[in-house]
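Field reference: sequence -> structure
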Amino acid sequence: METTPLDSQDELSALRALVAEQAAKLSAQEAEVSKRDSIIGLLRAQLELLRHRQHGPSSEKIDRKIEQFELMLEEIEASRAEADARSANSPLPELDDEPDKPKRRPLPDGLPTEELVYAAPCNCPTCGGTSFLKAADKVVQVMEHVPASVKIVRHIEKRMVCKDCDTTVSGEMPTLPIGRGKPGPGLLAHIMVAKFDDHIPLYRLSEMYGRLGIDISRSVMADWVGRVSVLLSPLILLIRAHIAAVDRIHTDDTPVDVLDPGRGKTKTGRVWVYVFDGSGYQDPTPRAIAYYYSPDRKGAHPADHLADFSGVMHADGYGGYKKLYGNQIVEAACMAHVRRKFHDVIKLKPSPIAEEALSRIGALYDIEDRIRGMPAAERQTLRQEYAGPILRDLKVWIEETLPTLPQKQKLAEAMRYALSRWAALSVYIDDGRVEIDNNIAERAMRPL
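Structure field:
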């Protein structure tokens, strides 16, 4: 191909301008990449901070922020990958010595494996030879998604008639969950889990089934959900009875928006949770979670829920619980709530006194980390030996420090809160089955 010599100053100027323009575009793209990387780093740092603080009294709000940041990260990282793909740039290899870079995890064990074998040609493309030596195979493993499938199960109940007396005998067909609609138990279980655990609305489930060529309307699924709820009622009663029969539970409550029929608006209801989990001290009793709904937060509701319960109850400082404590129920307060109040002080401004309080509380949690999973008797012995003196020293330090502080400050409020609940905060020291905080109940609220 012949090239035309650049014999004019105008052409040289145009070429220089083009080079300068491309350089400017490249610089702008590099700046944009750098900006996105800094945003990703910032969002990751914020996520780590929120996850660290997730067990405080405002964990519901923090959960929502975490979801928002996760979505922002998804959009930014997907956009960056799309830009790399469009520009035909392969991503830079990650260095093994970069601790902040997420490492690629190995494929999980136990998954079904399908092998696709691509045979080598029988003739050499270079010389046409047909005699070969075996070389090492190139193996690439990828994880693939198998689309969901729905099948029809035909239940055939064989019948016969006795020749001697005309009695009809037949096999025994299992009772179907919903006779009229003909959905199988697996389909109903999938719909219930998708709606209540994965939070997928029924109209979206209807669209997902539509992509499989199956027409199940939202109203039909809503009818199934209602009927399954009735079928599950005996199981719910058994779970609640199991919770009432144990002697250690965690409780919490959270506001929920519910429809207010006739007004076209929503109103705020309340969900209460009661949890038994003895895995922290090797209790073989099955773990269980019971949820209750109420239209408001009156103390009469937990009193009704716990009418048959007797034992230790981990809870926050909600005033409605006070009438429950006495002969039947022993209060165990939450050290995480105390810790959160000192954290709130540091959020406003640096405070060496609040830092000291957090350090002392942190020493208590260090002990809990070391004894988690031990039998209850061992936990009790180690707590009495190591955590008891730290807790007593913390109380003395707070009592000595509090009078020296302005009483209207948040720091003084945090100390008064701790002292007002000190007996309940100390229950866990002398009972290896009691936890230091109420995080078990707060974790049970997260799916909501």
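Note: The longest helix spans residues 9-52.
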